[in-house]
Design a protein that fits this description.
Blueprint: H1 12-25, E1 43-48, H2 54-65, E2 69-74, H3 86-94, E3 100-105, H4 110-114, E4 121-127, H5 133-147, E5 154-158, H6 165-176, E6 180-184, E7 200-202, E8 213-216, H7 232-239, E9 251-253, H8 266-269, H9 276-296, H10 327-330
Bound molecules: aspartic acid.
Aspartic acid binds at residues 126, 132, 165-166, 218, 220, 255-256.
Length: 333
Amino acid sequence: MRHLLSIDDLDRAAIEQLCDRAESFAEVADRPIKKVPALRGRTVLNLFYESSTRTRSSFELAAKRLSADVVNFAASGSSVEKGESLRDTVQTLAAHRPHAIVIRTPWAGASKLITRWTDAAIVNAGDGQNEHPTQALLDVYTLRARLGSLDGLNVWIVGDVRHSRVARSLVLALQTMGATVTLSGPPTLVPQELAVLGCQVRYTLDGLADADVVYTLRMQHERMQQAYVPSLREYAATYQIDARRLGRHQLLMHPGPVNRGVELAGDVVDGPQSLILDQVRAGVLVRMAVLYEVLASRGGPTAAPDPPAESSSGPAPSGGSDSFAPTSELHSA
Ligand code: ASP
């Protein structure tokens, strides 16, 4: 895998491989020293043009747990505020020769665009309302860890689907893994055209009781130029998932940040059916797996120098994936 730009680039085998790899990293999180040498000598640049709590912290942790050097760049407080373009910013930072760039921007397609301006592996950490592939992967990982398989799973995605990059990636990933997906919300936020993705579209919560998983989405105000619902109160009255609407057999998910009292009632956020914190934990593991995969297939001019001879557990950096130590060896820090 050279870059991770879209879930569309991954077939079922590739998603399973990433989840397996993530699972193999799970025990690192339980160690007193949570580090393995897999990406020693590599540099990962986190380039964030939009705010982020979970994604940014987990990419940073993921890179550090793999012993990569990490540079964090936030557009606010940088020369972007002096008018520097995306291209100039990327080319400037690429001059430091990072091996991977993790990028979040408000612009659909930006992560793909920057592959033209640098040799680094590019990981899309959210491009406008287009895609958020690592979120979808961590959601698949979370469900696999809980249920074993997603085949035949009935998932309802409820809320502001129109503006959600999470929904776009998630629908693709869930379907690839054998689940069926229903999208539900007000017509203004769940356009009928989304049925082309092969999902059912519903404008009420009738039938929600048949879902195995209820995946809720935040109202993405930052991408709204107009009012899409009469009021948040009215929206909550019709679509909020609370203890009354969530069946005992159902699992609850949300990508965060949650607006308590709007798309979710506080009691279900903290309740036993909530997988929200499992999703956060899975984020680090899945992002470790993604960084490992994109850097494992990377050789050429941006490759790191060979590790010292005495280092038996670090990856051989420039010969493609075959030259990396097997996962079991990567874990011996
Ligand atoms: N954290 C997710 C995203 O960046 C979902 C959200 O913001 O509502 O798209």
